[in-house]
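Aim 2 progress. For Box C/D snoRNA protein 1, the working sequence is reproduced below.
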Amino acid sequence: CETCSEEEAKYRCPRCMKYSCSLLCVKKHKLALSCNGVRDKTAFVSVNEFTDLNLLSDYRFLEDVGRTADAAARHATMHSPTTKRLLSCLRNKAQKCNIDLRTLPIGFTKRRENSTTFNSMEKKFYWHLKLVFPHCHAEYTLKGVPDDKTLADILKPYIDPVESDPVVCQRLKIYTVSPQSDVQILMKIENRKQNSVRYNELDASRSLLDNLKGKVIIEYPTLFVVLKTLKNDMVVLGQDANEPAESSDSESSSLSSMEEGEIRDSS
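Predicted structure tokens for this construct:
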């Protein structure tokens, strides 16, 4: 058992492949690793390990995608002129702020999740925002985040030793005990090829709007909060000796690869 290291393992988690000996250890490993126990249908399987079961699983996965797309296509509300006008208005407002906001077709997960709005009276965006803490395998979704709020204030309820929620603070302990100077906020660059993933480093002292200017946003921003002293596989653009300071890859190729990943995710 990879949880208690005492008893003989009887179960294997379909999600993370961890071995457990009992229901108690299963629950403990789910809590510790934020694992939902559900098999990842889009996980990579090498050719050597690919079996008939994997083929059947992929076939059923594609069937599920087809049913989901068909159900979305039949949803009248999503095709209404009002919805289309609101999305067009949202993109136009973002463009005036020098933000390339792109919306996905109906049925995509991020399209359904997105709750971003623009307040015409205040002339302000209220963003749907996702925070990812890779070192703790934790994700949090925020709704209605005003665009004039600084990233430091957005992160306070999560990693500030004093102002953060006690439960969240305990889960993100590795962040709360680290100095603020060690915290790095990254955002994936969308206009790159899939085999050349890079990230932009954001300024925590500046507002969300200032940090999003000049960037491509697919539906809503996703911020990755990492610690500089801990190893991670995220390459920051301009900090790699072999990388130029600016990206020159075509946007069309990245958008197509992004859409391919979202189609699999939408199931």
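The chain has a mean pLDDT of 81. This observation will guide construct design in the next reporting period.
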